[in-house]
């Protein structure tokens, strides 16, 4: 099949760079001896620049068992010489086997000659598989000013890559000849579809069979090299060949790959979105899609400390004040997936694991674009009850900070509160000020009969397109899906090409959400943790609304299953385990959401179906969120972080039996040590740098139910679970209900954590002990009520729930504003308190707004520049 057919697909054209490059495949072999890696060989391959059908193979062998290491520059220049890369059209004519003469670029100014030499470079794309192992074999710091390549790298999508090329320049002994390289790094771990990242799979995809070494030699490669050199060389070079051939199969011969597949998918979304929105450049696309402009356009809508990291890190700003306010609100309303275990226990009855088909692409296709340039806020809702008219459809672009109460008969309330690092769905928001929520879940809440009071909310101004709503994400996702279907026809179902586009479809949501909830990663160049920054398509509005749609879909389904007499045992991100059949679930109208989702599926795929069966089983041990197992072949097997012993085949009978036995026989935390390799931070830090060597981590893991919902104690029964050895063990089995208040949930979870220090919650007796502590234990005490009030006031202002004029006065420094707060006699606020108060999870720690009076009323009515008097400092 022609390798260019794949590259001709519109999405693939947009995903790829299209730039020519000299791709050099790279791999190493090493042996670990007494905690030290001995590098046995460096293998590098590249297509011949004159005859690309030929591969030039270079193997560099350090002295046997010596521990000697090469510099990156030395290894790459060996390839330049062996392959005569100066014949490449990408290399300047002045370059030869010794590099370039001093006179071709020299200047007395160091920076000028460095820049001039950079133009006389050999541009190389160094490609490897699992760079954490391979790229850490080079010598760093061995000579004066020797390049430390590791600090130029970034960890992305499971691999090590460069975001921009870096220079490597070196002169010979007398400085008459100089060698200049420009190096980009790519890792096939970041270029492979999910679940297909092994080198053997990549080799099979591109027609190069991965070789194996005889049993017992893989940990003794130094000996293998000594005793079987020919086989050693053939084995080693083969892995580097796979890397080059795999990338050529995806992107074409001699083409620079995108940094990652997901980054390529984002580029495809920009390309299709630009066409759809009529944008002539990426910057114009950002303006139309997410309301962002470059910093130098002079828009100063947001105070420095309040800028969201996803755009600030990339040197951008909101288009105007409305864009800033709306983006900030949706960022606060951005929450993760719905994960819960409504029915812990043992169920020896038929159940099925049902998934929402392509849940996130389906939801993305329902998100309507906003008219950022016309002023993105259509209406502001303040201090009133919401009605169905406010959120007339699930796709209404609304976001609000709300308090709520659900009817007692609603099995699964649908407004989340972020607390204790997770999402909790209590029946009421009593005890906290409220929570930020998006349109889809608000729409569902109102149809479930909830009373919802909106403290502050914003209705987005919709952008029109051809007489209807503008749906740029639908257009972009459909293009990827269409191209995936085309790849399936051309290359076959399950082919590398089809799976690559499948990964593209599934990864674009993550790119819209990149750094919306602030994400930090290791910046090796700066040697510090820093925000990752947004992607080309990051948008709090699109990301938050998408996740809200998916959670609303699941919560609507769960409620209707219960209403119709069924049961939901577990829910995880985009699917759930139930005793309903797929057909029965498909017959639910989801309070009207079914029609909306079916329309989206039809628009994307031509098929209105929104559900598919994933697993089916006749037995279910359901122990906690993301933790359930069946002994039925093909049944569920989710480990809740418990790592299986090395060599255990995932989902095999052995895997299932080991997990079930560990959970059902436990008397406390389950011992679960494992082997780990150093993180990218540990590999690239300049002080106390680690080599790529394994270490043992000893830990134990709690398999107890996580109490996101309240156990219904009268429903609890001691079910006996049969074990593979024929014995039985007790497992408490029970239903749950929503907590009345999030405070109740947090106290219950803390009691369970305390009990897990010495035991576990598995049997009915253990759960009764927990319930006794919960029912008769102490509630929350506010030791310093004034401090709680003061911090809640700061949170209310920083969360956008209330506006205090003095705190919003940008002519004042932050220190001056904090001093003003201290004048109220409630205590003091540090700069750290101020910065952290805007974090989304702090909303669950905010006292109810009416609890903050009379101080909040006085503060909001006081003009900037005025100061509180003794009359204002009322006793709280």
UniProtKB/TrEMBL annotation:
SUPFAM superfamilies recorded: DNA/RNA polymerases (SSF56672)
InterPro entries registered for this protein in UniProt: DNA/RNA_pol_sf
Domain of life: Bacteria
The name this protein goes by in its record: DNA-directed DNA polymerase
Organism: Glutamicibacter bergerei
């Amino acid at each position: 099949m022609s390798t260019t057919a794949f590259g001709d697909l519109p999405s693939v054209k947009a995903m790829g760079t299209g730039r020519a490059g000299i791709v050099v495949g790279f791999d190493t072999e090493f042996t670990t001896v007494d905690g030290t890696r001995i590098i046995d060989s460096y293998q590098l391959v590249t297509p011949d620049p004159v005859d690309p059908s030929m591969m030039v193979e270079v193997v560099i062998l350090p002295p046997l068992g010596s521990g000697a290491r090469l510099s990156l520059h030395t290894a790459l220049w060996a390839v330049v010489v062996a392959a005569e890369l100066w014949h490449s059209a990408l290399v300047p004519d002045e370059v030869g086997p010794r590099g370039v003469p001093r006179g071709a670029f020299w200047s007395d100014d160091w920076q000028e000659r460095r820049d001039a030499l950079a133009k006389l470079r050999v541009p190389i794309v160094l490609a490897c598989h699992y760079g954490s192992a391979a790229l850490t074999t080079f010598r760093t710091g061995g000579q004066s000013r020797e390049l430390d390549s590791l600090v130029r790298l970034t960890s992305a999508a499971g691999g090590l890559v460069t975001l921009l090329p870096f220079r490597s320049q070196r002169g010979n002994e007398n400085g008459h000849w100089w060698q200049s390289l420009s190096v980009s790094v790519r890792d096939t771990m970041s270029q492979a579809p999910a679940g297909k990242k092994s080198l053997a799979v990549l080799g099979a995809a591109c027609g190069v069979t991965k070789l194996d070494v005889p049993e017992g030699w893989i940990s003794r490669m130094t000996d293998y090299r000594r005793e079987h050199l020919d086989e050693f060389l053939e084995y080693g070079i083969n892995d580097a060949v796979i890397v080059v051939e795999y990338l050529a199969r995806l992107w074409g011969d001699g083409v620079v790959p995108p940094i990652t597949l997901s980054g390529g998918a984002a580029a495809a979304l920009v390309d299709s979105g630009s066409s759809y929105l009529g944008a002539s450049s990426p910057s114009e696309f950002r303006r139309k899609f997410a309301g962002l402009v470059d910093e130098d356009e002079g828009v100063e809508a947001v105070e420095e400390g309040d800028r969201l990291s996803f755009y600030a890190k990339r040197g951008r700003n909101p288009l105007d004040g409305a864009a800033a306010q709306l983006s900030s609100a949706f960022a606060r309303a951005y929450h993760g997936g719905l994960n819960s275990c409504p029915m812990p226990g043992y169920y020896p009855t038929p159940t099925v694991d049902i998934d929402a088909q392509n849940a996130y692409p389906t939801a993305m296709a329902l998100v309507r674009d906003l008219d950022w340039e016309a002023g993105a806020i259509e209406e502001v809702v303040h201090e009133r009850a919401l009605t169905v008219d406010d959120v007339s459809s699930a796709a209404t672009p609304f976001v609000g900070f709300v308090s709520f109460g659900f009817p007692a008969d609603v099995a699964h309330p649908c407004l989340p509160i972020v607390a204790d690092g997770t999402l909790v769905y209590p029946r009421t928001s009593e005890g906290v000020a409220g929570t930020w929520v998006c349109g889809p879940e608000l729409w569902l809440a109102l149809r479930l009969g909830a009373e919802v009071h909106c403290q502050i909310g914003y209705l987005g101004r919709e952008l029109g397109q051809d007489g209807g709503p503008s749906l740029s994400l639908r257009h972009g996702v459909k293009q990827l899906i269409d191209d995936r279907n085309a790849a399936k026809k051309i290359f076959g179902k399950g082919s590398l090409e089809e799976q690559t586009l499948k990964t593209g479809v599934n990864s674009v949501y993550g790119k819209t959400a990149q750094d919306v909830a602030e994400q930090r990663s290791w910046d090796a160049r700066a040697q510090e943790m820093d925000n990752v920054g947004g992607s080309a398509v990051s948008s709090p509005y699109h990301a938050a609304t998408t996740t809200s749609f998916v959670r609303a879909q699941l919560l609507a389904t769960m409620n209707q299953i219960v209403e119709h007499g069924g049961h939901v045992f577990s829910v995880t991100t985009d699917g759930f385990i139930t005793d309903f059949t797929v057909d029965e679930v498909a017959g639910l109208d989801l309070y009207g959401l079914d029609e909306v989702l079916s329309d989206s599926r039809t628009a994307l795929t031509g098929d209105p179906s929104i559900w598919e069966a994933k697993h089916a089983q006749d037995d279910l041990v359901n122990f906690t969120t993301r933790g359930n197992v069946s002994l039925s072949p093909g049944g569920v097997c989710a480990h809740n972080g418990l790592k299986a012993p090395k060599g255990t085949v995932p989902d095999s009978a052995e895997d299932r039996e080991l997990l079930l036995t560990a959970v059902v026989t436990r008397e406390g935390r389950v011992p679960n040590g494992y082997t780990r390799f150093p993180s990218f931070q540990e590999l690239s830090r300049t002080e106390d740098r680690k080599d790529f060597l394994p270490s043992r981590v000893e830990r134990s893991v709690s398999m107890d139910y996580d109490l996101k919902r309240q156990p219904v104690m009268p429903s609890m029964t001691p079910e006996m679970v049969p074990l593979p050895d024929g014995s039985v063990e007790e497992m408490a089995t029970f239903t749950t209900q929503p907590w009345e208040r999030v405070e109740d949930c947090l106290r219950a979870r803390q009691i369970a954590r305390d009990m897990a220090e010495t035991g576990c919650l598995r049997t009915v007796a253990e759960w009764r002990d927990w319930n006794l502590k919960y029912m008769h234990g102490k509630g929350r005490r506010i030791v310093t009520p004034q401090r709680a009030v003061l911090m809640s006031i700061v949170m209310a202002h920083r969360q956008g729930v209330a506006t205090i004029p003095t705190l919003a006065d940008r002519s004042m420094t932050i220190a001056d504003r904090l001093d003003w707060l201290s004048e109220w006699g409630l205590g003091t606020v540090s700069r750290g308190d101020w910065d952290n108060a805007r974090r989304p999870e702090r909303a669950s720690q905010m006292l109810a707004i009416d609890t903050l009076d009379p101080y909040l009323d006085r503060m909001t009515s006081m003009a900037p520049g005025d100061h509180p008097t003794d009359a204002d400092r009322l006793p709280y």
